[in-house]
Amino acid sequence: MKRFRVKTLISMDPQEDPVLCKGWVRTKRDSKNVVFFEVNDGSSMKNLQVILDKDKEILSEQMLQRLNNGSSVEVEGMLVESPGKNQKVELHCSALTIHGDADPETYPMQKKRHSFEYLREIAHLRPRTNTFGAVARVRNTMSRAVHDFFQENGFLWVHTPIITASDAEGAGEMFQVTTLDLDGLAKADGAKMSGGIDYSRDFFGKPSFLTVSGQLNAEIYASAMDRVYTFGPTFRAENSNTSRHLAEFWMIEPEIAFCDLEANMDWSEAFLKHILATVLKESRDDMEFFDLRIQKGIIQQLEQVVESDFTRISYSDAVSQLEKSGRNFEYPVSWGADLQSEHEKFLTEEIFKGPVIVTDYPKEIKAFYMRLNDDEKTVRGMDVLVPRLGEIIGGSQREERLDVLSRRLGESGLTEKDYWWYLDLRRFGSVPHSGFGLGFERLIQYVTGMQNIRDVIPFPRASKTAEF
Ligand code: 4AD
Ligand code: MG
């Protein structure tokens, strides 16, 4: 018998032959003569309605007791037109196997709605909820859209390393990688270890870290392949316990040769619009769920963003606008200070009512690699800000002039010795180039309306949280 996924079954026409469906029970309603239950297998927001006629003695009374919310089942039956208005078809069960029970007394997922805080504590079961199923599917659609966009535009996907010796952001927020000194541990324990491992703690011969960004590696490849991008996990040991920060998050970083800041902004805008348009089209059911349950009106909001031009404004102008607003911010705005998320929200939600690209920040608050402007005070950096979240993209035109880059390294307290290979890219065939980094989870938050970043990544890693 042919097995179909729930997503296919619910949109199929009634079938002449019986069909097979496998999944987990989501709801069960027991009446005198029939049992109604719904099955979900993760392929769709919607469940398949199954009807089991008690008179047909398909299941014993004892087996019926085992058919519960959460139990895994295999159902055979005829797919027929449904008289109900909520679904097109329903499955009339002719045989049923229960693979795994879920005792209603102890199963942590009850029929009621659970809070996201509670679900974070049972992160191994939360993919079984509507919300986390929808997030997982939308995340998948967005990943595919990322690759589609770059592949269609002639970009090469470069797999940059996770272990690195350089601090790409110069911000000192890195996790260090060392080896376990098992031999030393064993000796300390008083135990004798034959053939014990005695690695040097610095396996690579110098301190090594988990990458905070693949940018510098991407620049190496852009200096030969023209257009490249990375898409992978990055790590930051920042102790920010906020709804927008993770210690491990996924970043997408295109790096483009022969590209200035204007073109970089164009790329970032086209890229974001492509992702939004794809999700709106391909994950319609899931987006309707988010619109209804998580963030009212989000579909229309995103549709508008796809249709409109992003505002572009210099940091200096953004600061004047904020000062002029007369608003009493918790952190006062003044030229030279970094924009706080309250300022970013004010710009996107109150002043410009949509995404805003802020450019030309003071050099002191940005990384050493951003191209210095002629005023010697600002750099060709850009942040893309969106309503509800603030910054989702950080990028820049890179400093391609050897002498200026050397000077900027020194000013930032970094040594040329550590970045000799990066400087080489400016010594040999240097090229004006630009790139940016998009925080994938922040974009998923923006698209779904989910408020906490820990709820848009399957296994959140934040300070003091890592169960498995
Ligand atoms: O602004 P950031 O630090 O820029 C870079 O890392 C550059 N090397 C990117 C580049 O030009 N290639 O980080 C980029 C984005 C931020 O805008 C934010 O969306 C996200 O990464 N991000 C985080 N997301 C979740 N948790 C954190 N702790 C994050 N830190 C940054
Ligand atoms: Mg940034």
Automatic annotation (TrEMBL):
Class in the EC hierarchy, top level: ligase
Keywords, in A-Z order: Aminoacyl-tRNA synthetase, ATP-binding, Cytoplasm, Ligase, Nucleotide-binding, Protein biosynthesis
Keyword Cell cycle: no
Catalytic function, reaction form: tRNA(Asn) + L-asparagine + ATP = L-asparaginyl-tRNA(Asn) + AMP + diphosphate + H(+)
EC number per UniProt: 6.1.1.22
Subcellular location(s) of the protein: Cytoplasm
Gene3D superfamilies from the UniProt entry: Bira Bifunctional Protein, Domain 2, Nucleic acid-binding proteins
BP GO annotations: asparaginyl-tRNA aminoacylation
SUPFAM superfamilies the UniProt entry points to: Class II aaRS and biotin synthetases (SSF55681), Nucleic acid-binding proteins (SSF50249)
Primary location group: cytoplasm
Domain Aminoacyl-transfer RNA synthetases class-II family profile: residue ranges: 137-458
Molecular function in Gene Ontology: asparagine-tRNA ligase activity; ATP binding; nucleic acid binding
UniProt GO cellular component terms: cytoplasm
Quaternary structure (record): Homodimer.
HAMAP family recorded: Asn_tRNA_synth (MF_00534)
Protein family according to the UniProt entry: Belongs to the class-II aminoacyl-tRNA synthetase family.
Protein name in UniProt: Asparagine--tRNA ligase
Taxonomic lineage of the native organism: Bacteria, Pseudomonadati, Spirochaetota, Spirochaetia, Spirochaetales
Annotated gene: asnS
